[in-house]
Write a structure and sequence with these properties.
By secondary structure, the protein is of the alpha+beta class. Helices cover about 20% and strands about 25% of the residues. The chain has 2 domains: about 30 residues; about 45 residues.
């Protein structure tokens, strides 16, 4: 969450502030970068999801405690 800005919301909860913070968290949780190459063993953290577009095929890759896993090539619709 290093991309969020620290905010002092004080002791009063305002609906607009809470709504903004939840929207920001949702966006950060759904930020999946598109890469041109498959990730290496050293790349990323457990739980990361990346989209790989090699120019000839597109894959979804996710990192687990056992390493990176990739989908079969996706089909455009």
């Amino acid at each position: 969450m290093s991309r969020t800005m620290p905010r002092d919301i004080g002791n009063e909860v305002q609906a607009s502030t809470a709504k903004y913070l939840f929207e920001e968290l949702f966006e950060l949780a759904h930020d999946h970068p598109v890469r041109a190459t498959l990730p290496t063993v050293q790349d990323g953290n457990i739980g990361d999801i990346v989209i790989v577009d090699t120019g000839s095929a597109v894959y979804i890759c996710t990192k687990t405690s056992r390493g990176w896993f990739q989908s079969t090539a996706l089909t455009a619709i």
